[in-house]
Write a structure and sequence with these properties.
Layout: H1 2-6, H2 8-21, H3 26-44, H4 51-63, H5 70-83, H6 86-98, H7 104-119, H8 123-140, H9 145-156, H10 166-175, H11 179-207, H12 231-250, H13 252-260, H14 269-294, H15 301-325, H16 331-348, H17 354-387, H18 390-399, H19 404-419, H20 425-442, H21 447-459, H22 469-477, E1 483-484, E2 491-492, H23 497-520, H24 523-526, H25 537-549, H26 589-598
Antiparallel strand pairs: 1-2
Helix pairs in contact: 2-3, 3-17, 4-17, 5-16, 5-17, 6-7, 6-8, 6-15, 7-8, 7-9, 7-11, 8-9, 8-22, 9-22, 9-23, 10-11, 10-20, 10-21, 11-21, 11-23, 12-14, 12-15, 14-15, 15-16, 17-20, 18-20, 19-20, 19-21, 20-21, 21-23
Function: Part of the tripartite ATP-independent periplasmic (TRAP) transport system.
Organism: Lampropedia puyangensis
Protein name: TRAP transporter large permease subunit
Amino acid sequence: MELIASNFAPIMFAGLIVFLLLGFPVAFSLGACGLLFAFLGIEMGVFPASIIAWLPQRLIGILANDTLLAVPFFTLMGLVMERSGMAEDLIETVGQVFGSIRGGLALAVVFVGAMLAATTGVVAASVISMGLISLPIMLRYGYDRKLASGVIAASGTLAQIVPPSLVLILMADQLGRSVGEMYKGAMIPAMMLIGCYVVWIVLLAIFRPNAVPALPPEARIYREDNGSAGYTSLVVLMTLSAVVSVFLASHMADIHTWIEGREVTSVAMDEKVVTAMCGGAFVAFLIASLNRLFGLTLLSRLAERVTFVLIPPLLLIFLVLGTIFLGIATPTEGGAMGAMAAIVMGFLRKRLDMTLFKQALASSTRLTSFVMFILIGATTFSMVFQAADGPIWVEHLLTSLPGGQIGFLILVNVLVFFLAFFLDYFELSFIVVPLLGPVAHSLGIDLIWFGVILAMNMQTSFMHPPFGFALFFLRSVAPDKQYVDKVTHKVIEPVTTMQIYKGAIPFLCIQLVMVGSLIAFPNLVTGNLDVAVDVDMDAVGAQMLDSLSGQGGYGEGNPFEQGYGESAEGAVSDPFAAPSSSGYGSDDPSQALQDSLSGQ
C-alpha cells in the first residue's frame, strides 16, 4: 500500500489509459477514473477527504466560464454559413476565376478552404462541403485522384489553425491566456501553411501538368457576349480596392486626428489592417451594387459574381476577427455577432429556412454538449490528479530531459503526434495540455507560442492515415462505385480509400515541416503579439502599504503591524500567516496568494 501511495500519480495516469483502452467514452472515462482514484486516495491517506467538497465549485466554474461561450457561437455561425450554400457559391466562383490555369481547381479549393475556416471553424462542414461540390468537378476534368483527395482533406483541416478556430479557444482557456492573443499568434503561421499548400500545387502544375489540368473552355460559364472571360474588369476592380485599402492604412492617423479632434501620431497595426481591408472590400461591393442597380455595364459577369460572392463572407470575417483584434469585443461577443450576422445573411439571400436553421441549432447543441461533458470529466480527473501532486511528477519527468526548451518541445510534439492517432483535439486539449502547460511555463516557454505549436500539431490528427477524421469525412462523400458523369456522360472510376490516404501524406508532411519551423523560429508567433507590460509587484505592494499607512482608521504606522490579536506568548499574530497545522500554507503571504490562484 505504501508503494501505491508513493506512486499514486503515475498509477492514476496509467489507470486513465486502461479506461480509454477498454473503449469507454472519453468523458465518462475521465470522470470515472477521477472519482475512483479520489475515493482510493482518501482511503489511503494520500489527500484529505475534503477534496470531494472542491468538485462542485470546480464544476460551477466551468459553467461560469465566459470564454467557453464562444464555442457554441462560432459553431452555430459556421453551420449556418455552410447550410446557407456559401461553400457551394465560393467553390463555383473561385473555381471559375482560377479554372483557366493548370491546378486552378486545386488552388480554388485551398482558398475556399481558408475562407470557410475563417467563417465556419468546423472541419467536418468544410471537408464534406468541398468533397460533395469540388471532388466530382475535379474528377470530371481529369485531376489525379490522390491530389484531389489530399487537397480537399488538407484544406478542410485549416479550420483547426485559422482563426476563429475552436481549438485555439480551448488552448487559450486551458493555458490561461487571452483568446485574442492566441488568434494573433496563429495568424502568420496559418497564412504560411496556406502558402505552402499553394506552392505545392504550383510545383505539381509545373512538373506534373497532367495531374492538374485546366478547365476546358466549355466549362467556363461566366463569359461576356463577345466571348471574353471578363478578367480585365475584375483586375481593375481589385486594383481600385487595393488602392483604397493602402490609402486608408497610410492615412489612419490623420483620420483619427479628424474624428477625435486631437493629434494622433500612431495607430496599431491591427487596426490599420482591419480598417483598410474593410474599406477596400466595401468600395468594391458598392461599385458592384451600383453597377447592377443602374445597369452601368462597368463590370463583367465574372467580376460582379466574384464581388457578390466573396465580399459578404470577407466582411463577416472582418466583423468577427477585426472586433476581437481591436479590443472592441471579446471572443464571446465576436462569436455572437458573427452568428447573428450569418443568420441574417442566410435569410436575406433566401438560402436559409427554418428547417435548415433548426438543423444548425441542433448540431451546435450536440457539439457544445460533447465539449462540456468532456470538460466536466477532465476537470474531475485533473482536480484529483493535482491533489495527488501529479503536476509535480509530470514536471520532474519532463524538465529532466536533455536539450532544455527545444528538447521538451520536440518530445511533446512527438507525443501529441502519436496521441492524435487515437484522440480528438478536444480530448488532447482537456487531458494533455493542462499537464504540459505548467511545465512549459516553468521552462520559460511563451504559452501563446506553445499553444499555437500544439494547435498546428493537433491539426495533423485530422490527416493521419488511417485514423484521420478528415479522411473519414471525405471517404463518406467520395464515390466508392463507378458512375456516369451527368455533364460529360463519361464513366468515372471510384476513389479508393488507399488513394485518399496517399493523397494526405504530402500535406501531412507540410504540416510537420510547419511545426518544426514554429519551434525553430518563435518570432513567427510572438512577433505578432502585443508587447507585454512588466509589472514590479514588489513596488506595487510597497505603494499599497504606503497608501494604507497614511489613511485614517487604522492608527499610525503600518496597518499590518496593528494588533489583530496576540498569541499565547503575547506576540502579535500575523493574520495573513498560514496555519501551522496545514500542509498547504506558506510563510510568505504573496506566495500563498499565488499558490491559491494557481490552484483555481
